[in-house]
Amino acid sequence: MIYGQCAGVMVVGRYCRSMSIPGTVYKAHATGNDFVIYEDDEGRYAPTVGEVRLLCDRHRGIGADGLLRLTHPGHVADVSDRVRADCAAAGAEWFMDYRNADGSLAEMCGNGTRAIALFARRGGLMGSSVGSSLALGTRAGVKTLTYLGDVSPYGHDVFRVDMGPWRMGETEGYAVGIPGVDGSARGTFVDMGNPHVVAVVEDGHADLPAVEDLDLVHKPIVEPRIDSDQNVEFVRVDAVPSSSPDHGERSGPGRATMRVNERGCGETLSCGTGLCATGVVLRSRTGVGSWDITVRGGTLRVDVRDDAVSLTGSATMVAKVELL
């Protein structure tokens, strides 16, 4: 499958510049988290920081939360020998080279895995039938995606992603505030291969506005400071399922609402690893391991186990773009 072979030329204001990426790229989103995507089978099209910023710019470029290059593990310069060995052991021929909209490298993007898996499926790089799977290399390890088809209430072209292990820090060990907004909430650190701080904002529990009313234009402030930059989630619990009096089994998934400010791009409509981090914190608070979590881009399912998390949600191909 070859989506584009020649370097494109994009007009930027009064200037033309040759780009080190293919002349044809694609636009996709996964519950509103949107991406520029292209395939790089031969490892010829590693993007520069400036090119990522330009393509993701919503006024001067295509517009996206990040860029996804589908390539092979050996073609990604910053990937370690250990990660390449893990990809080989898992049979992961393809690798998701993900860049945030500001051009910075990212370890992982849960929504990005679904978008790039749909891109691979449409291009014949994974099976097309329901139940087909794809082992995908990422900087945070190999993730296995399974195609589920259309699933209510999650939408069309739904994938389940095995997001791998998680690690949670001290419960509510951080103070989380928003510049220009009075009040704060307590947040919990969760490592999903990338760093998150999850603040559960219950009505009357924290002195911040309701989740729907938060101003997330500005990057939240986390204290004490974490060494690496982090994503921040604000969450409201909407419903906790009751247990069966006979067997102690839950009647269904819990329901919650989440908003997120992602490092490198600001507030997004959805964040896959943030959803998983939220599920981890909610499980710790309630004992419920399965959650339907609504973000601005839709509703997704998170299932948390002791050793791993899975994320279920839709993906959508939007457009084929020829760069001029």
Automatic annotation (TrEMBL):
<comment type="pathway">
    <text>Amino-acid biosynthesis; L-lysine biosynthesis via DAP pathway; DL-2,6-diaminopimelate from LL-2,6-diaminopimelate: step 1/1.</text>
</comment>
<feature type="binding site">
    <location>
        <position position="194"/>
    </location>
    <ligand>
        <name>substrate</name>
    </ligand>
</feature>
<feature type="binding site">
    <location>
        <position position="231"/>
    </location>
    <ligand>
        <name>substrate</name>
    </ligand>
</feature>
<comment type="similarity">
    <text>Belongs to the diaminopimelate epimerase family.</text>
</comment>
<dbReference type="GO" id="GO:0008837">
    <property type="term" value="F:diaminopimelate epimerase activity"/>
</dbReference>
<comment type="subunit">
    <text>Homodimer.</text>
</comment>
<feature type="binding site">
    <location>
        <begin position="272"/>
        <end position="273"/>
    </location>
    <ligand>
        <name>substrate</name>
    </ligand>
</feature>
<feature type="active site" description="Proton donor">
    <location>
        <position position="109"/>
    </location>
</feature>
<keyword id="KW-0028">Amino-acid biosynthesis</keyword>
<protein>
    <recommendedName>
        <fullName>Diaminopimelate epimerase</fullName>
        <ecNumber>5.1.1.7</ecNumber>
    </recommendedName>
</protein>
<dbReference type="InterPro" id="IPR018510">
    <property type="entry name" value="DAP_epimerase_AS"/>
</dbReference>
<comment type="function">
    <text>Catalyzes the stereoinversion of LL-2,6-diaminopimelate (L,L-DAP) to meso-diaminopimelate (meso-DAP), a precursor of L-lysine and an essential component of the bacterial peptidoglycan.</text>
</comment>
<feature type="active site" description="Proton acceptor">
    <location>
        <position position="271"/>
    </location>
</feature>
<feature type="binding site">
    <location>
        <begin position="110"/>
        <end position="111"/>
    </location>
    <ligand>
        <name>substrate</name>
    </ligand>
</feature>
<keyword id="KW-0457">Lysine biosynthesis</keyword>
<feature type="binding site">
    <location>
        <begin position="262"/>
        <end position="263"/>
    </location>
    <ligand>
        <name>substrate</name>
    </ligand>
</feature>
<dbReference type="GO" id="GO:0009089">
    <property type="term" value="P:lysine biosynthetic process via diaminopimelate"/>
</dbReference>
<feature type="site" description="Could be important to modulate the pK values of the two catalytic cysteine residues">
    <location>
        <position position="196"/>
    </location>
</feature>
<feature type="site" description="Could be important to modulate the pK values of the two catalytic cysteine residues">
    <location>
        <position position="262"/>
    </location>
</feature>
<feature type="binding site">
    <location>
        <position position="33"/>
    </location>
    <ligand>
        <name>substrate</name>
    </ligand>
</feature>
<feature type="binding site">
    <location>
        <position position="100"/>
    </location>
    <ligand>
        <name>substrate</name>
    </ligand>
</feature>
<dbReference type="InterPro" id="IPR001653">
    <property type="entry name" value="DAP_epimerase_DapF"/>
</dbReference>
<dbReference type="Pfam" id="PF01678">
    <property type="entry name" value="DAP_epimerase"/>
</dbReference>
<keyword id="KW-0963">Cytoplasm</keyword>
<feature type="active site">
    <location>
        <position position="109"/>
    </location>
</feature>
<keyword id="KW-0413">Isomerase</keyword>
<dbReference type="GO" id="GO:0005829">
    <property type="term" value="C:cytosol"/>
</dbReference>
